Amino acid sequence: MYRCLIIKAAFKATLKATLLLVWAGAAQAEKNAEEQWLHYRANEGASAFSSLKKINSSNVDELELVWQFRTGDSEKMAEHMGRTSTQVTPILLPKEAGGHLAFCTPFNRIIALDPKTGQQRWSFDPKVNMAGTRPMRCRAVTYWQHANTQEREKYCGRRLYVATHDRRLVAIDAKEGSLCKSFAKNGELLLYNEKSGYQPDYVNNSSSAVVVGNNIVVGSAIIDFAESHAPQGTVVAFDALSGDFRWSFDPIPKSNDHPMAKDWPRVDGKNPQDFAGGANAWAPLSVDNERDLVFIPTSSPSPDFYGGMRPGDNRYANSVVALRGATGEVIWHQQLVHHDLWDYDAPAAPVLVDINQGGKKRAVVVQVTKQGLVFTFDRETGEPVFGQEERPVPQSKIAGEYSSPTQPFPLKPRPLIDANIDPKKDAFGMLWFDKNACEKRLASLHSEGLFTPLSLQRTLMLPGSLGGANWGGASFWPKRNLLFVNLNTAPFEGELRPINPNNPGDHIVAHGSEMKVTMKGSPYMVITDTVTSPLGAPCTEPPWGKMVAIDMGSGEVRWESALGSIHDMAPFPVPFDINWGTPNLGGSMTTAGGLTFIAATMDKRFRAYDSLTGRTLWTTKLPVDATAVPMTYELDGKQYVVLAAGGHKMFNRGTGDYILAYALPD
What we know:
CATH class of the domain at 88-206: Mainly Beta
Radius of gyration: 25 Å
Distance between the termini: 55 Å
CATH topology of the domain at 88-206: Thrombin, subunit H
Helix content: under 10%
Shape: globular
Strand order of the largest sheet: 1-35-36-37-38
Strand content: 25-35%
Structural class: mainly beta
Largest sheet: 5 strands, mixed
Number of helices: 5
């Protein structure tokens, strides 16, 4: 009797343990599925982190190319490739949505691949309007699924959206790749006012839309240095199912009732929207669906380099703005630059992570900036996590200009770029005459450190409007509390030059690295250039591009490493890598395997850093430069690392149309 009871008890315990294991396995499988790369930067919070670790610091040097796919753009769109910038990161769709690896080309064509083989399954071409001269790019497609599980299984219950270059929001069925005609008007929604029409040389889209609740939210990319009165940088939300308008957010006041009206004084009796524009969200947005928040990084108001016509701090420009996802209500905001005179946009997706401080977790927003500062705010209140202070900065010497007497600085981390240059100590040259030329050139430039406004004298711009950090943003390793950001450190120069009203000159003219822009409607044009030696190298000490790791518990910098080799930039053939760093555009991905992957450089290289030490563990040569954020996923027990490589118009490098997948050998 007792023996039977013991056997029954043992059987029940075994059954219970087995069921627990099955449940745990199912839960883990579900968790793993959720952790696959379903958003532009892995997750809605843009942390660019993956919990995968089959590829790790002990075996990453064995990575090899396992497949490559070419979109065909280099051949079919050859005449337009010179104006493209391949910045796309593919996303991996759930099995129920086809399990495709989905991405967009710079021409907004959506392509679905078999993630295991790289074979094309389908493609969809929205046939964008090619008018204008603006660079063409598409950073990602956006995935949405119906909240109702039964509706989700119907046609277009799972969708992909693309915000196109010619200002449309297009919805297609995620599984089959055909238009969802129930969305807006036959699957397409115009993002511009039909009265003003599409303005190809002024407004486009570069970053993907985001989904918060059942709303899909989209910003815009506005050329904000060409004219004083550029188009408005309005952020708009629509119902993700129907395309019906839900709300809009205008960073520039349209009336005195606007909460920031005091920061935009009237000029000659006019309201701000009559004399300024921009302040748009061209960078990627971030979402916290649990809190019903969408985070908007805004750019500078127009025109970028002269603000005499837009006095005041100009808030909500150059800010992180937290909006209620359901209504568009402003919950909190923090301005990162007052009255911008440097084109210091908030350039990257706000990174939403939980950091560990003294054993306690805190939900925060981390914003990297062009000026080389990293701001950290409480996610719910906007309170600076490491403290913040207003510091005196250099003042403008331009008559009629208003410059803010102070600018905000976080107390930690320290500035990641030293903007104070001593020509004698800091001039660099490959040879003695090269260094002498750089010393003279640096000495001729006006500089008072960070936030020195441009003047009628040539002025050092460090960082320049490229950054510092740019749209590649930052990645984060939760377990180690580490943030990783790539930065440009090469110097630029610029000056303001009065416009002759009788002969204003061409609108935008580029001669080599020098660019001249007539800021139409203002008294000045702006001229910018790189600061390089006779041999073509930047005039300051390397590195000219770097990776930085920050401990987000203490706010201290953990390590810095050069990013990139100059062998491809040299004026003569160099058969080996010279790791002095290069200008870079793109971003990093971090994995639980202790690795941070990044391309972004001007040397046709893809690298993996040891996330704890900053040591380069793996490097591979690419067919062309890759200015995109990599991604990773696991399929049938194998981890893949995928990167788009297509060159970059801004750096005048070769172009291409590659999607490359790497994995460990079987």
